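Exercise 7. Given the components listed, write out the predicted structure of the assembled complex. Treat all entries as one system.
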Amino acid sequence: MEIKVGLASCGLAAGAGAIYEGIKNYISDKDLDIKLRKTACIGMCFAEPIIEITTDDGKNITYGRLNEADIAPIIESCLQNTPLLEKAILSPDYDCPENDNKAAQTRIVLRNAGHIDPENIDEYLENDGYKALEKVLKTMSPEDVIKEVKDSGLRGRGGAGFSTGLKWQFAFQNQSDKKYVICNADEGDPGAFMDKGILEGDPHSVIEGMLICAYTIGADEGYVYCRAEYPLAVRHLKKAIADAEERGIIGKNIFGSDFSFDLHIKEGAGAFVCGEETALIGSIEGKRGMPNLRPPFPAKSGLWGKPTNNNNVETYGNISWIILHGAAEYRKYGTENCAGTKAFALTGKIKNSGLIEVPMGTPLREVIYGVGGGMKFDKPFKAVQLGGPSGGCIPEYLLDTPVEYESIMKTGAIMGSGGMVVMDTDTCMIDIARFFLNFTQNESCGKCTFCRVGTKRMLEILNRITRGEGVMEDIDTLEKLAHQIIDTSLCGLGKSAPNPVLTTIKYFRDEYIAHIVDKKCPAGVCTALLKYTIDASKCVGCTACARKCPADAITGQVKQVHVIDQDKCIKCGACYEACRFDAVIKV
Amino acid sequence: MENKKEIDVIIEKYKGKRGATIPLLQDLQSIEGFLRRETMIYASEQTGIKIADMYGVATFYSMFRLKPQGRHIIRVCKGTACHVSGAETIFHAVQSRLNLNELEDTTNDGKYTLVEVACLGCCSLAPVMMIDEDTYGKLTPDSVGKILDRYE
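Answer.
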């Protein structure tokens, strides 16, 4: 029998470390013949901690939401080949609740994540690892690779959606004594963790993609620029690079060819704008990460002024699959203009939050209600936010929009790198717009005046509206400022920063009006527009709210109706959470 | 100068290397958890990296600190998923628990430093915070207190 434990960062945060130790101790105490292995994220973050068991008679069951007490009964039942199914979530052999979830997905870039041990190069090699690199080095010219990648229709997964093959061709055509390959792993969008999942779960697939790219464009040195907030991803990547070097997969004369390659990791130091490629290059050069005017594009003059190809983690992760299976096979997934699949970090008020991968062109509705399992609480769907701080909120009536670059763009949002945050009626759209603008305003590098000052002015207006001090002209001012910022900013950060505001004005204008004219926040989020009161007919005088109130604003005797002093109330909502009789009401 | 030996080892590692400013400062910061003025001036003299460039980098990236930090770093996630799940309340709960006001980020006894981070990538466990290297999810104002008790 074999047991795999998911030990990616989300699993660890949910207690997978203790489960792993518990199983290890159980096996050694009972002297059982069980192979215990580590893996990373299978993507079902909602059910962490997760283990996968393969029984001696070849049955495979994945268990979720485990605690230490589950270990003994599950192991014993599986040893008898009569597995307990109460906590089983997924299985090809039994009827489990998440079987449909898996069936609705197509995993190409996440093919190994959650299945192999990311710290063990042999497991990658056993799963066709580095075979694509070998094929490229032994049988393909750089032109062949460019053609294959172009034919596959693969487009940059960082969000811009530029043809990867074409990008490689530009870097290939620019003659130089030195060229570089960069992997952008500075995944900064709040609410996005696709690249983290890939790097933690299958780092070699990214390295293989970079090696193939380096051979193709004629580079001999590369950098992975990784966000420092991802310590586990950095650790797995370091281990993967060291192992690949030891096996001669990175280094001199790889697979006996003339191709040599060195790969370094650069840990970011915390600046969202470094996700922009010219800022990222500046950061590797040791400077403040500020964007530069393009052209010249990095393909011509990039790192240290040399031709450089920069793709994101997910883009590189697709390459080896495309080389091994062929462009035509890749094109079987997705749409005419957007081939292949896309990984998404599905989060927010959704049942099955986690890391998913679906074919391009899948309607949003299917992603949310099919793969995602629908809304988490009983509140109605309100919007789905795509593309993080550069993206926008898409309302219910546009949920049949397919996930592909152009269709999403038409709604005013962007595909982005893959963050997908689902919101219900408890979410205030003005607050969301303010949240993202606050983020971009903080992260603006300050180079372009409109991005630096304009976002600040927009934020002030939004703050005013959420305090109930807005006027109707504010909406026009917001739109005017938004377009000026878009027109005058150099890089993607400024050009897209107003999107969250523009889309919320477009689809949720009535909510702006409610804040401005009626001085009400329909979602009950904006504290300045809220009032907490106690319904005398429901209050039983249990004192729970008074004990929780941090401002001593609630008075009342035991078993008598309590009262909130509005002058003292700081509107923290502690009483609302504490009341078990629904007596505290938000108005 | 304190820690001169350690500082010299780090400077030697990066001397004359291209693009060394950020990793140099990252390593220097790892000694004490923040960058001392005299350390930066010394490193600038030794490496030839202009002090203005060094200060420019140190103030551009959020990871660098010019003031001492607490023994434990609490990072409260303010990513999108955490925001819609009540990260603000969690942040205030930690703040009031540590008796910090809006302008302070480090407790008087030098035990904790409280910071906001954009996204820790554990969105399905929102709201989330990280204390040093450990991540805690599905937080409530009550559970925050219990977690902090373990560090007392």
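Discussion: The first strand of chain B starts at residue 72 and ends at 77. The helical segments of chain B are 4-14, 21-32, 37-47, 51-60, 80-84, 87-97, 141-149.
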